[in-house]
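[job 4471] stage=fold_predict status=RUNNING
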Amino acid sequence: MTPQPSPEAGAAVKAADRAHVFHSWSAQDLIDPLAVAGAEGSYFWDYDGTRYLDFTSGLVFTNIGYQHPRVVAAIQEQAAKLTTFAPAFAVEARSEAARLIAERTPGDLDKIFFTNGGADAVEHAVRMARLHTGRPKVLSAYRSYHGGTQQAVNLTGDPRRWASDSAAAGVVHFWAPFLYRSRFYAETEEQECARALEHLETTIAFEGPGTIAAIILETIPGTAGIMVPPPGYLAGVRELCDKYGIVFILDEVMAGFGRTGEWFAADLFGVTPDLMTFAKGVNSGYVPLGGVAISQEIAETFGKRPYPGGLTYSGHPLACAAAVATINVMAQEGVVENAKRLGESVVGPGLAALAERHPSVGEVRGTGMFWALELVRNRETREPLVPYNAAGEANAPMAAFAAAAKRNGLWPFVNMNRTHVVPPCNATEAELKAGLAALDAALSAADEHTV
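[job 4471] inference complete, writing structure tokens
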């Protein structure tokens, strides 16, 4: 439902924002944020009444769309019952959320430490690994994103790390597999997998296995490009961790809770980590919530030894009530199955068809409701449509593509030379087809920059 346009109200919201709100990851004087009047399901709209189909799911967190009535009602009911309470107590919403999450995590990841979001979940997972092993270093991949707090941003493998990288955070980066832009001169997925694992084991050897507490990977890297790992890679990393006594952490903040057509992306590969971080889709982002799912062995480390960490709002009742409602909605309404089915039957084939029509599409990759289009200037050379970390005029081709998508009523997820297709996991077939049609039109703007 779209309300009556109110440009005056929108102007007031925009003016207050520009006067007082300091935005993340932005040069403050160069941004022009859209004033949002409302949202429902897969859509949101501005104060002029312009409606957008959201192919970003916010920041890939509205896995059940905006304003799901059952989750809104659960938050309201919890607020009337017990709005907040300290984390040291047993609270019904917190206990039930932990139980429902533990039911769905792989293996013996049955203890849940709640945080306020994904970045602090990563912070605490790393702290647990270091305390459990007594070792200082953590290995993480280039082409990754783990959060904006100090440890998490140092683990990150994209340019957002650079300004905060002190080179003293105990982090070592390595190359994970990505056949389309292989660092290993591979020609097949099998070669890419084998050579990436050899590279990782060599990195472990030269860093000193006895100094490495953990290896952390996004199960399927999200913001960095939705690069589904080749068969056998994550199992191979699991074997290396077991061989050298290293804690294996999987970051499922973006890939978890139905996004890949499974409850967790780890389920696609049959791999169980020692620690797994989550956030975003756990309650569709309705109230901030994240956490770490902990294996029995690591939980036992802190059975008689206090864990030195916590947060004032850990397991906040409103956030946990939203998680309980979200997980129940997903189970009862078949949201995970919808993401898998329509990913296979609509999104994947639809994007493949776009690749056939548009020379700017170099590669399509993904699963479920988690896809990326790699946009290029030249398919043969695979030159990216814009340079790595492009800004200003250098980024004009991607800016033109994004503007064209918005003119067609589609809000796109754009990062570097890619557009990601990450709609709500309960989006309908009709909505997905409408979004693909808008993408089809917008890609013509990118095609103009191909050679």
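[job 4471] summary: The CA atoms of residues 334 and 426 lie 8 Å apart.
[job 4471] exit 0
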